[in-house]
User: Fold these one by one.
Assistant:
Number 1:
Amino acid sequence: MSRHEHLERSIPSTSSDPTAEVTMTINGVTLTRQVSTRMLLSDFIRHGLRLTGTHVGCEHGVCGACTIMIDGRAARSCLTFAVQADGAEIRTIESEEKEDGTLSALQQAFQECHGLQCGYCTPGMIMNIRSRFDSGEELDLSDDGIRELISGNLCRCTGYANIVKAVRRAAELTGRA
Protein backbone atom coordinates (compact mmCIF):
# COMPACT_ATOMS: atom_id res chain seq x y z
CA MET A 1 0.00 0.00 0.00
CA SER A 2 1.36 3.40 -1.00
CA ARG A 3 1.80 6.19 1.51
CA HIS A 4 -1.07 8.08 -0.12
CA GLU A 5 -3.41 5.11 0.16
CA HIS A 6 -2.39 4.55 3.77
CA LEU A 7 -3.05 8.20 4.61
CA GLU A 8 -6.38 8.12 2.80
CA ARG A 9 -7.50 5.07 4.82
CA SER A 10 -6.30 6.50 8.12
CA ILE A 11 -8.31 9.73 7.83
CA PRO A 12 -11.94 9.22 8.82
CA SER A 13 -14.49 10.17 6.18
CA THR A 14 -16.70 11.81 8.80
CA SER A 15 -15.98 13.72 11.96
CA SER A 16 -17.12 12.58 15.38
CA ASP A 17 -17.44 16.22 16.46
CA PRO A 18 -20.89 17.24 17.63
CA THR A 19 -22.71 19.26 14.98
CA ALA A 20 -25.37 21.93 15.02
CA GLU A 21 -27.63 23.39 12.41
CA VAL A 22 -26.98 27.04 11.64
CA THR A 23 -28.92 29.47 9.51
CA MET A 24 -27.34 32.73 8.46
CA THR A 25 -27.50 35.25 5.68
CA ILE A 26 -24.22 35.63 3.83
CA ASN A 27 -23.94 38.40 1.26
CA GLY A 28 -27.71 38.52 0.99
CA VAL A 29 -28.25 34.75 0.62
CA THR A 30 -29.89 32.89 3.51
CA LEU A 31 -28.61 29.36 3.98
CA THR A 32 -28.83 26.54 6.50
CA ARG A 33 -26.00 24.06 7.09
CA GLN A 34 -24.86 21.44 9.59
CA VAL A 35 -21.49 22.46 11.06
CA SER A 36 -19.12 21.09 13.64
CA THR A 37 -19.53 23.01 16.88
CA ARG A 38 -15.76 23.58 16.77
CA MET A 39 -15.65 24.98 13.22
CA LEU A 40 -14.39 28.53 12.96
CA LEU A 41 -16.46 30.96 10.95
CA SER A 42 -13.42 31.67 8.76
CA ASP A 43 -13.18 27.97 7.87
CA PHE A 44 -16.92 27.74 7.24
CA ILE A 45 -16.76 30.74 4.90
CA ARG A 46 -13.63 29.65 3.06
CA HIS A 47 -13.99 25.88 2.94
CA GLY A 48 -17.69 25.28 3.48
CA LEU A 49 -18.96 28.04 1.21
CA ARG A 50 -15.89 28.50 -1.03
CA LEU A 51 -15.87 32.27 -0.46
CA THR A 52 -12.09 32.48 -0.49
CA GLY A 53 -11.80 36.27 -0.41
CA THR A 54 -11.78 36.09 3.39
CA HIS A 55 -8.14 35.42 4.22
CA VAL A 56 -6.71 33.75 7.29
CA GLY A 57 -3.38 35.12 8.48
CA CYS A 58 -2.49 34.66 12.11
CA GLU A 59 -5.53 32.70 13.40
CA HIS A 60 -5.25 34.66 16.65
CA GLY A 61 -7.28 37.78 15.78
CA VAL A 62 -4.22 39.99 15.55
CA CYS A 63 -3.68 40.62 11.83
CA GLY A 64 -7.22 41.43 10.67
CA ALA A 65 -6.93 39.49 7.38
CA CYS A 66 -10.09 37.52 8.24
CA THR A 67 -12.21 40.58 9.01
CA ILE A 68 -15.81 40.32 7.83
CA MET A 69 -18.98 42.07 8.94
CA ILE A 70 -21.38 40.38 11.33
CA ASP A 71 -24.66 42.24 11.77
CA GLY A 72 -23.10 45.39 10.37
CA ARG A 73 -19.97 45.44 12.52
CA ALA A 74 -16.42 44.40 11.67
CA ALA A 75 -15.47 41.10 13.30
CA ARG A 76 -12.62 38.61 13.18
CA SER A 77 -13.94 35.42 11.61
CA CYS A 78 -10.97 33.42 12.96
CA LEU A 79 -12.11 34.15 16.52
CA THR A 80 -15.77 33.30 15.92
CA PHE A 81 -17.29 29.84 15.78
CA ALA A 82 -19.72 29.23 12.93
CA VAL A 83 -22.40 28.29 15.50
CA GLN A 84 -22.04 31.74 17.07
CA ALA A 85 -23.15 33.27 13.77
CA ASP A 86 -26.47 31.41 13.77
CA GLY A 87 -29.13 33.94 12.76
CA ALA A 88 -26.55 36.58 11.81
CA GLU A 89 -26.25 38.74 8.71
CA ILE A 90 -22.72 38.32 7.37
CA ARG A 91 -20.90 40.26 4.69
CA THR A 92 -17.62 39.18 3.15
CA ILE A 93 -15.42 40.93 0.61
CA GLU A 94 -17.41 39.23 -2.14
CA SER A 95 -20.33 41.52 -1.23
CA GLU A 96 -18.35 44.59 -2.31
CA GLU A 97 -18.69 43.93 -6.03
CA LYS A 98 -21.59 45.84 -7.58
CA GLU A 99 -24.41 44.02 -9.39
CA ASP A 100 -22.93 44.98 -12.77
CA GLY A 101 -19.53 43.54 -11.77
CA THR A 102 -17.81 46.89 -11.27
CA LEU A 103 -15.79 47.79 -8.21
CA SER A 104 -17.30 49.38 -5.13
CA ALA A 105 -16.09 52.85 -4.18
CA LEU A 106 -13.74 51.34 -1.59
CA GLN A 107 -12.25 48.92 -4.09
CA GLN A 108 -11.98 51.67 -6.70
CA ALA A 109 -10.21 53.95 -4.21
CA PHE A 110 -7.71 51.21 -3.30
CA GLN A 111 -7.03 50.69 -6.99
CA GLU A 112 -6.73 54.40 -7.84
CA CYS A 113 -4.47 55.17 -4.88
CA HIS A 114 -2.35 52.02 -5.14
CA GLY A 115 -3.47 51.02 -1.64
CA LEU A 116 -2.40 47.42 -2.07
CA GLN A 117 0.59 45.46 -3.16
CA CYS A 118 0.30 41.73 -2.52
CA GLY A 119 -3.37 42.19 -1.60
CA TYR A 120 -3.48 39.65 1.22
CA CYS A 121 -4.63 42.15 3.84
CA THR A 122 -6.92 44.06 1.48
CA PRO A 123 -10.21 42.12 1.91
CA GLY A 124 -10.06 42.42 5.71
CA MET A 125 -8.97 46.04 5.47
CA ILE A 126 -11.87 46.89 3.15
CA MET A 127 -14.43 45.10 5.34
CA ASN A 128 -13.17 46.97 8.41
CA ILE A 129 -13.42 50.30 6.58
CA ARG A 130 -16.82 49.36 5.10
CA SER A 131 -18.12 48.67 8.60
CA ARG A 132 -17.09 52.13 9.73
CA PHE A 133 -18.42 53.84 6.61
CA ASP A 134 -21.78 52.08 6.95
CA SER A 135 -22.06 52.80 10.68
CA GLY A 136 -22.92 56.44 10.10
CA GLU A 137 -20.34 57.45 12.72
CA GLU A 138 -18.38 60.59 12.01
CA LEU A 139 -15.16 59.87 10.17
CA ASP A 140 -11.88 61.47 11.19
CA LEU A 141 -10.15 61.74 7.82
CA SER A 142 -6.90 63.14 9.19
CA ASP A 143 -3.88 60.88 8.71
CA ASP A 144 -3.99 59.97 12.41
CA GLY A 145 -7.74 59.33 12.31
CA ILE A 146 -7.46 57.01 9.33
CA ARG A 147 -4.48 55.22 10.87
CA GLU A 148 -6.58 54.67 13.99
CA LEU A 149 -9.42 53.31 11.84
CA ILE A 150 -7.17 50.74 10.15
CA SER A 151 -5.02 50.02 13.20
CA GLY A 152 -6.56 46.55 13.60
CA ASN A 153 -5.38 45.46 10.16
CA LEU A 154 -1.75 44.64 9.54
CA CYS A 155 -0.14 45.18 6.15
CA ARG A 156 3.37 43.93 5.54
CA CYS A 157 3.82 45.47 2.09
CA THR A 158 2.57 49.02 1.71
CA GLY A 159 3.77 51.15 4.58
CA TYR A 160 0.13 52.32 4.88
CA ALA A 161 0.61 55.72 3.17
CA ASN A 162 -1.41 54.77 0.09
CA ILE A 163 -4.02 52.98 2.21
CA VAL A 164 -4.56 56.24 4.08
CA LYS A 165 -4.98 58.01 0.74
CA ALA A 166 -7.39 55.28 -0.42
CA VAL A 167 -9.60 55.68 2.66
CA ARG A 168 -9.75 59.43 2.11
CA ARG A 169 -10.53 58.90 -1.59
CA ALA A 170 -13.26 56.36 -0.75
CA ALA A 171 -14.80 58.92 1.61
CA GLU A 172 -14.86 61.41 -1.27
CA LEU A 173 -16.40 58.88 -3.66
CA THR A 174 -19.12 57.93 -1.16
CA GLY A 175 -19.90 61.48 -0.04
CA ARG A 176 -18.49 60.86 3.44
CA ALA A 177 -15.69 63.43 3.11
Note: The chain has a mean pLDDT of 92.
Number 2:
Amino acid sequence: MGFKQKLLGVRSKLIGENSTEKLIKRGLKVGKNFNRQSRCIIDGSHCWLITIGDNVTFAPRVHILAHDASTKRHLDYTKIGKVNIGNNVFIGAGSIVLPNVEIGNNVVIGAGSVVTKDIPDDSLAVGNPAKVVGNVQEYLNKQKKLMETRPVYDASYTLTGEITDVKKEQMKSELQEGIGFVK
Protein backbone atom coordinates (compact mmCIF):
# COMPACT_ATOMS: atom_id res chain seq x y z
CA MET A 1 0.00 0.00 0.00
CA GLY A 2 1.40 3.40 -1.02
CA PHE A 3 1.77 6.46 1.21
CA LYS A 4 -1.24 8.19 -0.35
CA GLN A 5 -3.47 5.15 0.27
CA LYS A 6 -2.26 4.92 3.89
CA LEU A 7 -2.93 8.62 4.36
CA LEU A 8 -6.44 8.24 2.95
CA GLY A 9 -7.00 5.30 5.32
CA VAL A 10 -5.92 7.37 8.32
CA ARG A 11 -8.11 10.27 7.17
CA SER A 12 -11.05 7.90 6.79
CA LYS A 13 -10.58 6.62 10.31
CA LEU A 14 -10.27 10.14 11.71
CA ILE A 15 -13.15 11.66 9.78
CA GLY A 16 -15.14 8.94 8.02
CA GLU A 17 -16.04 6.88 11.06
CA ASN A 18 -17.59 9.93 12.67
CA SER A 19 -19.00 11.61 9.60
CA THR A 20 -22.24 13.42 10.31
CA GLU A 21 -24.14 10.83 8.29
CA LYS A 22 -22.73 7.92 10.30
CA LEU A 23 -23.42 9.70 13.59
CA ILE A 24 -27.03 10.30 12.50
CA LYS A 25 -27.38 6.58 11.80
CA ARG A 26 -26.19 5.95 15.39
CA GLY A 27 -28.78 8.37 16.82
CA LEU A 28 -27.44 11.92 16.55
CA LYS A 29 -30.32 14.35 15.89
CA VAL A 30 -29.51 17.18 13.46
CA GLY A 31 -31.80 19.87 12.06
CA LYS A 32 -31.71 21.64 8.71
CA ASN A 33 -28.73 23.67 7.45
CA PHE A 34 -26.09 22.19 9.76
CA ASN A 35 -22.60 23.44 8.85
CA ARG A 36 -19.86 21.32 10.44
CA GLN A 37 -16.50 22.73 9.45
CA SER A 38 -13.15 20.92 9.44
CA ARG A 39 -11.85 18.81 12.31
CA CYS A 40 -14.96 19.05 14.49
CA ILE A 41 -15.49 16.19 16.90
CA ILE A 42 -18.98 15.08 17.81
CA ASP A 43 -18.92 12.40 20.51
CA GLY A 44 -19.32 9.20 18.49
CA SER A 45 -19.54 6.98 21.55
CA HIS A 46 -22.72 8.69 22.87
CA CYS A 47 -24.01 10.64 19.87
CA TRP A 48 -27.64 9.63 20.53
CA LEU A 49 -27.50 11.97 23.55
CA ILE A 50 -26.79 14.97 21.28
CA THR A 51 -29.41 17.10 19.51
CA ILE A 52 -28.47 19.92 17.13
CA GLY A 53 -31.13 22.36 15.86
CA ASP A 54 -31.65 24.17 12.55
CA ASN A 55 -29.17 26.68 11.11
CA VAL A 56 -26.25 25.69 13.32
CA THR A 57 -22.58 26.23 12.46
CA PHE A 58 -19.62 24.57 14.17
CA ALA A 59 -16.44 26.44 13.25
CA PRO A 60 -13.22 24.39 12.87
CA ARG A 61 -12.13 22.14 15.76
CA VAL A 62 -15.35 22.38 17.80
CA HIS A 63 -15.78 19.43 20.19
CA ILE A 64 -19.20 18.28 21.42
CA LEU A 65 -18.93 15.76 24.26
CA ALA A 66 -21.76 13.73 25.80
CA HIS A 67 -19.42 11.79 28.08
CA ASP A 68 -16.64 12.50 30.57
CA ALA A 69 -14.36 9.54 31.31
CA SER A 70 -12.54 11.24 34.22
CA THR A 71 -14.37 8.92 36.65
CA LYS A 72 -13.82 5.65 34.73
CA ARG A 73 -10.49 4.58 36.29
CA HIS A 74 -11.59 5.29 39.87
CA LEU A 75 -15.30 4.47 39.84
CA ASP A 76 -15.43 2.10 36.86
CA TYR A 77 -18.17 4.34 35.41
CA THR A 78 -18.12 7.19 32.92
CA LYS A 79 -20.26 10.28 33.42
CA ILE A 80 -22.71 10.93 30.59
CA GLY A 81 -25.18 13.71 29.86
CA LYS A 82 -27.37 15.07 27.10
CA VAL A 83 -26.27 18.00 24.94
CA ASN A 84 -28.97 20.11 23.30
CA ILE A 85 -28.06 22.87 20.87
CA GLY A 86 -30.89 25.13 19.73
CA ASN A 87 -31.63 26.83 16.42
CA ASN A 88 -29.54 29.62 14.87
CA VAL A 89 -26.40 28.86 16.88
CA PHE A 90 -22.78 29.61 15.98
CA ILE A 91 -20.05 27.86 17.98
CA GLY A 92 -16.62 29.44 17.42
CA ALA A 93 -13.39 27.69 16.51
CA GLY A 94 -11.81 25.49 19.14
CA SER A 95 -14.76 25.59 21.51
CA ILE A 96 -15.72 22.62 23.67
CA VAL A 97 -19.26 21.80 24.79
CA LEU A 98 -19.34 19.41 27.77
CA PRO A 99 -22.05 16.89 28.75
CA ASN A 100 -25.30 17.96 30.40
CA VAL A 101 -25.42 21.33 28.64
CA GLU A 102 -28.23 23.10 26.80
CA ILE A 103 -27.46 25.96 24.42
CA GLY A 104 -30.55 28.00 23.60
CA ASN A 105 -31.74 29.52 20.32
CA ASN A 106 -30.00 32.48 18.65
CA VAL A 107 -26.71 32.02 20.49
CA VAL A 108 -23.11 32.87 19.58
CA ILE A 109 -20.34 31.04 21.44
CA GLY A 110 -16.98 32.79 21.04
CA ALA A 111 -13.89 30.98 19.78
CA GLY A 112 -12.01 28.92 22.36
CA SER A 113 -14.88 28.82 24.84
CA VAL A 114 -15.56 25.87 27.14
CA VAL A 115 -19.30 25.51 27.70
CA THR A 116 -19.84 23.85 31.08
CA LYS A 117 -23.33 25.18 31.89
CA ASP A 118 -26.54 26.05 30.07
CA ILE A 119 -26.54 29.14 27.84
CA PRO A 120 -29.92 30.90 27.51
CA ASP A 121 -31.59 32.05 24.28
CA ASP A 122 -30.28 35.20 22.55
CA SER A 123 -26.91 35.12 24.32
CA LEU A 124 -23.34 35.91 23.42
CA ALA A 125 -21.10 33.69 25.58
CA VAL A 126 -17.30 33.56 25.72
CA GLY A 127 -14.47 32.24 27.85
CA ASN A 128 -13.37 29.29 29.93
CA PRO A 129 -15.74 28.56 31.45
CA ALA A 130 -18.10 30.26 29.01
CA LYS A 131 -20.07 33.13 30.50
CA VAL A 132 -22.83 35.23 28.99
CA VAL A 133 -21.36 38.66 28.22
CA GLY A 134 -24.21 40.14 26.20
CA ASN A 135 -27.01 39.34 23.84
CA VAL A 136 -26.77 38.46 20.18
CA GLN A 137 -28.68 41.51 18.93
CA GLU A 138 -26.35 43.93 20.76
CA TYR A 139 -23.36 42.09 19.32
CA LEU A 140 -24.76 42.19 15.77
CA ASN A 141 -25.69 45.88 16.08
CA LYS A 142 -22.13 46.66 17.19
CA GLN A 143 -20.67 44.73 14.22
CA LYS A 144 -23.10 46.38 11.78
CA LYS A 145 -22.03 49.81 13.00
CA LEU A 146 -18.38 48.81 12.62
CA MET A 147 -19.10 47.85 9.00
CA GLU A 148 -19.82 51.55 8.31
CA THR A 149 -16.18 52.49 8.99
CA ARG A 150 -14.17 49.34 8.22
CA PRO A 151 -13.43 47.56 4.92
CA VAL A 152 -16.24 45.35 3.55
CA TYR A 153 -15.43 42.85 0.80
CA ASP A 154 -17.71 40.92 -1.55
CA ALA A 155 -17.49 37.17 -2.28
CA SER A 156 -14.81 37.72 -4.94
CA TYR A 157 -12.41 38.21 -2.01
CA THR A 158 -12.77 34.54 -0.90
CA LEU A 159 -11.28 31.25 -2.08
CA THR A 160 -14.63 30.18 -3.55
CA GLY A 161 -14.79 33.54 -5.31
CA GLU A 162 -11.34 32.85 -6.78
CA ILE A 163 -9.58 35.71 -5.05
CA THR A 164 -6.65 37.17 -7.01
CA ASP A 165 -3.20 37.98 -5.69
CA VAL A 166 -3.98 41.68 -6.20
CA LYS A 167 -7.08 41.40 -3.99
CA LYS A 168 -5.12 39.47 -1.34
CA GLU A 169 -2.56 42.29 -1.17
CA GLN A 170 -5.36 44.89 -1.06
CA MET A 171 -6.95 43.12 1.92
CA LYS A 172 -3.63 42.85 3.76
CA SER A 173 -3.02 46.55 3.27
CA GLU A 174 -6.54 47.70 4.22
CA LEU A 175 -6.64 45.49 7.33
CA GLN A 176 -3.45 46.97 8.85
CA GLU A 177 -5.55 49.10 11.19
CA GLY A 178 -8.04 46.46 12.29
CA ILE A 179 -10.91 44.20 11.45
CA GLY A 180 -12.89 44.02 8.20
CA PHE A 181 -15.80 41.99 6.83
CA VAL A 182 -16.06 39.59 3.88
CA LYS A 183 -19.20 38.11 2.25
Note: Helices lie at 3-14, 20-26, 72-75, 136-146, 165-174.
Number 3:
Amino acid sequence: MKLNPNIRKVAVKYGLAGGLMSVLAFAVFYALGHQPWRNLISFILDAVIIGMFCFLAIREFKVSYNGSELRFYHGMTIGFIVYLLIGFVFSLFFAGFINWIVPDFLAEYIQIAIEDLNLRKDMLLEQVDENPEAFFQEQVEGIRQITRSQLVLDVFLKRVLIGLFVTPVISVALRTNQR
Protein backbone atom coordinates (compact mmCIF):
# COMPACT_ATOMS: atom_id res chain seq x y z
CA MET A 1 0.00 0.00 0.00
CA LYS A 2 1.49 3.30 -1.08
CA LEU A 3 1.07 6.25 1.26
CA ASN A 4 -0.06 9.56 -0.18
CA PRO A 5 3.08 11.76 -0.52
CA ASN A 6 1.09 14.79 0.62
CA ILE A 7 0.84 13.28 4.09
CA ARG A 8 4.54 13.82 4.68
CA LYS A 9 4.49 17.29 3.12
CA VAL A 10 1.61 18.54 5.29
CA ALA A 11 2.83 16.86 8.47
CA VAL A 12 6.38 18.22 8.18
CA LYS A 13 5.10 21.75 7.55
CA TYR A 14 2.87 21.72 10.62
CA GLY A 15 5.34 19.78 12.77
CA LEU A 16 8.10 22.32 12.19
CA ALA A 17 5.71 25.24 12.74
CA GLY A 18 4.41 23.65 15.94
CA GLY A 19 7.95 23.03 17.16
CA LEU A 20 8.83 26.69 16.61
CA MET A 21 5.64 27.74 18.41
CA SER A 22 6.57 25.48 21.32
CA VAL A 23 10.05 27.05 21.45
CA LEU A 24 8.54 30.53 21.36
CA ALA A 25 6.13 29.70 24.20
CA PHE A 26 9.01 28.35 26.31
CA ALA A 27 11.14 31.43 25.60
CA VAL A 28 8.33 33.81 26.55
CA PHE A 29 7.59 31.97 29.80
CA TYR A 30 11.30 31.84 30.66
CA ALA A 31 11.79 35.54 29.86
CA LEU A 32 8.87 36.37 32.14
CA GLY A 33 10.45 34.32 34.95
CA HIS A 34 7.71 31.67 35.12
CA GLN A 35 9.93 28.55 35.04
CA PRO A 36 8.16 26.79 32.13
CA TRP A 37 9.57 23.37 33.05
CA ARG A 38 7.38 23.29 36.16
CA ASN A 39 4.53 25.63 35.27
CA LEU A 40 1.08 24.05 34.76
CA ILE A 41 0.01 26.78 32.35
CA SER A 42 3.07 26.04 30.21
CA PHE A 43 2.17 22.34 30.16
CA ILE A 44 -1.40 23.12 29.14
CA LEU A 45 -0.11 25.47 26.44
CA ASP A 46 2.12 22.66 25.11
CA ALA A 47 -0.92 20.37 24.93
CA VAL A 48 -2.90 23.06 23.10
CA ILE A 49 -0.05 23.67 20.63
CA ILE A 50 0.33 19.96 19.88
CA GLY A 51 -3.43 19.46 19.57
CA MET A 52 -3.89 22.54 17.41
CA PHE A 53 -1.09 21.71 14.98
CA CYS A 54 -2.17 18.07 14.71
CA PHE A 55 -5.74 19.20 14.02
CA LEU A 56 -4.68 21.78 11.44
CA ALA A 57 -2.43 19.32 9.62
CA ILE A 58 -5.03 16.55 9.53
CA ARG A 59 -7.75 18.96 8.44
CA GLU A 60 -5.61 20.49 5.69
CA PHE A 61 -4.77 17.06 4.33
CA LYS A 62 -8.43 16.05 4.37
CA VAL A 63 -9.76 19.21 2.74
CA SER A 64 -6.95 20.25 0.38
CA TYR A 65 -5.24 17.03 -0.66
CA ASN A 66 -7.63 14.12 -0.24
CA GLY A 67 -10.98 15.28 -1.59
CA SER A 68 -12.60 15.68 1.85
CA GLU A 69 -11.90 12.01 2.60
CA LEU A 70 -10.00 10.97 5.72
CA ARG A 71 -9.36 7.54 7.09
CA PHE A 72 -8.24 6.94 10.64
CA TYR A 73 -4.79 5.81 9.54
CA HIS A 74 -4.33 9.05 7.57
CA GLY A 75 -4.99 11.09 10.69
CA MET A 76 -2.82 8.90 12.89
CA THR A 77 0.09 9.03 10.44
CA ILE A 78 -0.08 12.78 10.04
CA GLY A 79 -0.48 13.33 13.79
CA PHE A 80 2.42 10.99 14.55
CA ILE A 81 4.77 12.91 12.27
CA VAL A 82 3.55 16.26 13.59
CA TYR A 83 3.97 15.53 17.29
CA LEU A 84 7.30 13.76 16.77
CA LEU A 85 8.61 16.79 14.90
CA ILE A 86 7.29 19.17 17.55
CA GLY A 87 9.04 17.11 20.21
CA PHE A 88 12.24 16.83 18.17
CA VAL A 89 12.44 20.56 17.34
CA PHE A 90 11.76 21.53 20.94
CA SER A 91 14.25 18.97 22.26
CA LEU A 92 16.97 20.32 19.98
CA PHE A 93 16.24 23.84 21.19
CA PHE A 94 16.12 22.71 24.82
CA ALA A 95 19.45 20.89 24.50
CA GLY A 96 21.03 24.06 23.15
CA PHE A 97 19.29 26.12 25.81
CA ILE A 98 20.57 24.10 28.77
CA ASN A 99 24.03 23.56 27.32
CA TRP A 100 24.94 26.92 25.78
CA ILE A 101 22.32 29.62 26.33
CA VAL A 102 21.91 29.06 30.09
CA PRO A 103 24.79 26.75 31.06
CA ASP A 104 23.87 27.00 34.77
CA PHE A 105 20.37 25.68 34.08
CA LEU A 106 21.03 22.18 35.42
CA ALA A 107 22.27 23.50 38.77
CA GLU A 108 19.26 25.84 38.98
CA TYR A 109 16.88 23.02 38.06
CA ILE A 110 18.33 20.70 40.71
CA GLN A 111 18.23 23.42 43.38
CA ILE A 112 14.58 24.25 42.66
CA ALA A 113 13.60 20.56 42.56
CA ILE A 114 15.23 19.94 45.96
CA GLU A 115 13.51 23.03 47.40
CA ASP A 116 10.17 21.72 46.10
CA LEU A 117 10.89 18.33 47.63
CA ASN A 118 11.69 19.94 50.99
CA LEU A 119 8.41 21.87 50.88
CA ARG A 120 6.53 18.60 50.43
CA LYS A 121 8.69 16.60 52.83
CA ASP A 122 6.06 16.11 55.53
CA MET A 123 3.42 14.99 53.03
CA LEU A 124 5.86 12.53 51.40
CA LEU A 125 7.09 11.10 54.69
CA GLU A 126 3.52 10.41 55.87
CA GLN A 127 3.13 7.98 52.97
CA VAL A 128 6.26 5.95 53.74
CA ASP A 129 6.07 3.22 56.38
CA GLU A 130 9.67 2.05 56.66
CA ASN A 131 12.57 4.43 57.28
CA PRO A 132 11.07 7.65 55.91
CA GLU A 133 14.27 9.70 56.33
CA ALA A 134 16.29 7.23 54.24
CA PHE A 135 13.56 7.36 51.59
CA PHE A 136 13.71 11.15 51.55
CA GLN A 137 17.50 11.17 51.22
CA GLU A 138 17.24 8.71 48.30
CA GLN A 139 14.87 11.12 46.58
CA VAL A 140 17.24 14.04 47.11
CA GLU A 141 20.18 12.00 45.78
CA GLY A 142 18.12 10.99 42.76
CA ILE A 143 17.48 14.65 41.97
CA ARG A 144 21.16 15.50 42.38
CA GLN A 145 22.08 12.83 39.82
CA ILE A 146 19.86 14.22 37.05
CA THR A 147 21.75 14.88 33.82
CA ARG A 148 21.15 17.25 30.92
CA SER A 149 20.38 14.35 28.61
CA GLN A 150 17.69 13.12 31.00
CA LEU A 151 16.06 16.55 30.95
CA VAL A 152 16.13 16.65 27.13
CA LEU A 153 14.64 13.17 26.93
CA ASP A 154 11.98 14.19 29.46
CA VAL A 155 10.78 17.17 27.41
CA PHE A 156 10.71 15.03 24.25
CA LEU A 157 8.73 12.22 25.89
CA LYS A 158 6.22 14.64 27.43
CA ARG A 159 5.38 16.02 24.00
CA VAL A 160 5.14 12.55 22.50
CA LEU A 161 2.80 11.40 25.27
CA ILE A 162 0.56 14.43 24.76
CA GLY A 163 0.46 13.63 21.05
CA LEU A 164 -0.35 9.98 21.71
CA PHE A 165 -3.48 11.02 23.57
CA VAL A 166 -4.57 13.88 21.32
CA THR A 167 -4.03 12.39 17.84
CA PRO A 168 -6.53 9.49 18.04
CA VAL A 169 -9.26 11.84 19.24
CA ILE A 170 -8.65 14.25 16.37
CA SER A 171 -8.38 11.40 13.84
CA VAL A 172 -11.71 9.96 14.94
CA ALA A 173 -13.40 13.36 14.97
CA LEU A 174 -12.25 14.25 11.44
CA ARG A 175 -12.53 10.89 9.69
CA THR A 176 -15.18 10.33 7.07
CA ASN A 177 -17.53 7.37 7.09
CA GLN A 178 -16.81 4.71 4.52
CA ARG A 179 -19.57 4.07 2.01
Note: The helical segments are 5-31, 40-65, 72-101, 105-119, 121-126, 132-144, 148-174.
